[in-house]
Request: fold
Amino acid sequence: MRDILTALVTVLVGLGGLAAVLAGLYWATRLLPRALRERAQVVIFLFPALFLVAIGLLIPAARTIYTSLLDDTGTSFIGLDHYTSIFRQNDTRMVVLNSFFWVIAGTGLTTMAGLAIARYADGIKGEKLVKSLIFLPGAVSLAGAGIIWRFVYAGPPFKVGLLNQVTKAIPGLPTSLGGEGDNLWLVNRNLGPLDPPTSLPGFNTFLLVVIFIWASTGFATVVFSAAIKGVPESLIEAAKVDGATDRQAFYKVTLPYIRATIVTVATTTTISALKVFDIVASTTGGNFGTSTVANEFYRVYFVQDRNGFGSALAVLLFFLVVPVVVINRRAQRRAEELMAS
Reply:
């Protein structure tokens, strides 16, 4: 209890000291000429935020990049060897391909599902209830979603797998498609005639992406629904006066109008897919060819204690996310220009 009180007092004293320093500097700026006063005040109030960004983001990022250029013991400089190893080794190359598959399948299907539900659920009876049920999985953490779906995909020796019970109940379904009700869905990479090579993501990876879609579609639906409701009725009515059907009005008027929202949802989902760790860790642990860059980083850095190679994976993940953020910002800027005009 004493330690807690000491820590609390230390934090309060530190914050009080910081506030006193800022107040003193602000008072000092009032003595400056008017031309310099505003700039000085801006610098004073930006300094704490910039300091925290530097301590919590810039310095750790620079340290991670530097560590990725060293060997796993951190004693020898080896340059870009870890980065070339990522794409040279079959296992890690497979990890990168899995992450790209998560982005393509997860982002594409989540965006399309959210857009379709937002369009057809608007205006129906019980709209609020339907959207609440669709959004409900989004309130579950991704780790919790993975645990829930482990019961769905469970196979022998467990007898509680929902998917196995469903496939077992279908008459005439081949064993390779789960007809006997004993398929190991998270272990097998193939499904019936679908047998991808070991260099490509397997069907079990797609089953993990399904969990991501289930947990993310609610967010996309809510955002798209709000965007669709924000389309001016005058635009829709003008299109219908010109002879457009509801379908044509949606594709020719509504979709272009909410393009910035679509890009925002797609980029947000892409970043989540690139960083996915919880679902993989709580279902397969990255085994059976299902590991992603984020999951592999955790395994290499924290479990195997390979600091150099693990840092290279973290830097790779960072550089994969940066272009997505840039695209998102450009879309937002276009939307702002459109609204201003």
